[in-house]
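Hi V.,

You were right to ask for the full record rather than a summary. Here it is.
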Amino acid sequence: MRREMSQIIKIFDTTLRDGEQSPGASMNMEEKIQIALQLEKLGVDIIEAGFAAASPGDFEAIENVSKIITKSTVCSLARAVSRDIEAAGKAIREAKYKRIHTFIATSPIHMKYKLKMEPGEVIKRAVEAVEFAKTFTDDVEFSCEDAGRSEISFLKEILDAVIEAGATTLNIPDTVGYRLPHEMGALIKELHNFVEDRAILSVHCHNDLGLAVANSIASIENGARQVECTINGLGERAGNAAMEEIVMILKTRRDYFGGLDTHIVTKEIMPTSKLVASITGIHPQPNKAIVGKNAFAHESGIHQDGVLKHQETYEIIKPEDIGLYNAENIVLGKLSGRHAFKEKIESLGFRLSDEELDQSFKRFKLLADKKKEIFDDDLRAIITDEIVKAKEIYKLVNLQINDCMSGMPSAALIIDKEGEEIKDAGIGNGAIDAIFKTIDRISTISGELIEYKVSSVTEGKDALAKVTVKVIFDESKPAVTGHGLNIDTMIASARAYISALNSHLATKDFKNRRDRGGI
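Predicted structure:
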């Protein structure tokens, strides 16, 4: 069945809010800003930049994103509580386009056991929340938390009330990923017929049963005109609907969806996926649709032969349509100048300040002295590592490892702390453990390593090693992520741990959001 209506499906990206609720995916201020800038370049309609009332760190991040984003709408989540809504309104006040997204639970199980409220009280609270949010912005979205398990008669009642109060977007979340596609489609169809053109109908599908994208597509078929999703499907528990999959389904199957389209610049999908993966340390599984490492890989001889003869035999999407190119352009080397470097990184989609450019160029030159060939991924790694740093209270100056087969592994480090060089050495159960324990002693802050990953940025013996660590420095706060980059894995590991330490020190009362609820 071909749909002829020419309509835009709004893409509401919640990578910075719901995506950050993935265990270990917390981001510092600089990281959030870089992702927000890339989301704007990607063409996202609405960026949910955080939950302003969750912590001072979240408030500040939303406030800073609001100042730099000029094309996308910047949104803050808020419970149907006055102090949450006031915090959201203040955080987004400088945004060119701003939205407050307020929510309350509507399922019988949530109202009885979590809210301990009668249905009438829930409706009253929802109306008051929308009315208060309207004093900060005309663009107000209302969500029925756990709508997937709510009674449809009650959904109609509360949606009718919030429309009257001024809500312009109505979100129907499948909060626990419970619904099947045909059930979600039927629910949205009935609500769409009830709401008509009084407000935009939105969906927010979780992936607990692996159906988030399927449920989102079924909702679009039945009248939803906004989809809430994340890059790489990030999100708490099993994650959210993957933005890249929804967008490419609509693009690839235009024969079915007709005039339905998005504002997404699809060539920015892969760069955005790589940026988010690099910052969070959570990489898509190799066989992940659209952005997985193997998504366009062909090992079968039959498949290889077919693709070589005609690409569409086994590829329904052109890799270049999502910003993936088969051959990287190796144009930079140790003789390349600053101007050529600047031109190249701008072609890769980065916007750097003069200071960031200078620092990145210095690191490029150091790498070019050690590596024969500089690939685009090398440059992406250098630049991402440089521009997402928290304030560097500690810097690695020098590292020496003694990891002989006989005797105890040890590490000697020189670390700069705001202009003062501190030297120390320590032993451990292996070289990495010795490095981390010595850093703990120098900083007098002990960390608990909960995840350590090392990967090769490109191929070859001289490939850059990228190390990602997740560390808990304070049990009352979530784990922080650190990144390190170097040809030497030991140096990369030390830099990653110090990066995590700096992020911890730069974080201001960053409370775990999981006690705040969510949609």
